[in-house]
Amino acid sequence: MPRLGITVDYADDFATSATEVTEFERAGIDVIAVAEAYSFDAVSRLGYLAAITERVTLLSAILPIFSRTPALIAMTAAGLDSVSGGRFELGLGSSGAQVVEGFHGVPFTAPLSRQREIVEICRAVWRREKLEHAGKSYTIPLPGGLGKPLKLINEPVRASIPIALASITPKAVEQTAEIADGWLPLFFHPTRSRAVWGEALDAGAAKRDPALGALDVIVTVPFHVGPGAELALEGHRQRLALYVGGMGAKNANFYNDLAVRYGYEDEAARVQELYLAGEKAAAAAALPDDLVRDTALIGTEQEVQSRVDALVAAGVSTLMIAPLAPSRSGRIAAVEAARAMLPA
């Protein structure tokens, strides 16, 4: 049975969200994810949620790899796994140049090699090995100085914490399928995903260590059933336009590239042209209706059930919903509805 999860967004009122999390846990949610951008950090929130929950898995979705050293990422994950009693999963991603260079002042270079090395370093730290690493992006300890190989002082709850990687480009997806426990794609299109990512997933799987087991496909979608669906769908359209049209420069937008690979080359170019010209409403209107509809779980009960079935058929093993209901009771009802739509 696929896992059901929910994401606490970085822009949410956390005090409100935290009280709802305990209700989501009682309603049968399996995973609570906390996002991070140029916002409050996710780690403090995950630590707080570890203290007030008992059963749910806690997932960082995502921690950007450029804003922390590899050893700190490993230490943080081991710490969150400890305070949660072995309930933490480490979601990592590269973010992008606009945030990495604009907010952190760190060059956005070689994200794939950095990600691979960070995964290797984290797993070595959790095994409590003396940390010695010589790679293209990181050399630990630094040569010629006073540093010496060290190992983690504490005993981790687990020697192997699950790692999920956010990736959408073919090379990044291939690497994810090779080295990660989970995959965090964005704007997953259930009927077109195989055509876009199938070759990369297969190539990565061919090099995958069998000990990692099956790749957990973790997909986040907005969720709303029934009255108000058109308004909810319009909100998703606006967010999708931001990513396809304005998330990155003209020739450096991974999400625009994804829309092109989905088969919307002309529409993607038009959306970006309008968005970068400041015509955001027009850009949103230019998005293909089926792209908007098929990357969301919004509509009648029958329509949403059909799309849930399509996601499961496409290999989604953890369905993360973002309930769009305006009330607490509506969001709890959304969790219950989504649970009922998943196969037993």
Descriptive notes:
The strands form two sheets. An eight-stranded parallel β-barrel has the order 1-2-3-5-8-9-10-12, surrounded by seven helices. Strands 6-7 form a two-stranded antiparallel sheet. The longest helix is centred in the last third of the chain and has 18 residues. Strand 4, helix 3 and strand 5 form a beta-alpha-beta unit. It is α/β, with parallel strands linked by helices and about 350 residues long. Helix 1 packs across helix 2 and helix 8 crosses helix 10.
Give the SSE map.
Blueprint: E1 3-8, H1 14-26, E2 31-34, H2 42-52, E3 57-60, E4 63-64, H3 70-83, E5 88-93, H4 97-103, H5 111-126, E6 133-134, E7 139-140, E8 163-166, H6 170-179, E9 182-184, H7 193-206, E10 216-225, H8 229-246, H9 254-261, H10 265-276, H11 280-285, H12 289-294, E11 297-299, H13 301-313, E12 318-323, H14 328-341
Helix pairs in contact: 1-2, 3-5, 6-7, 8-10, 9-10
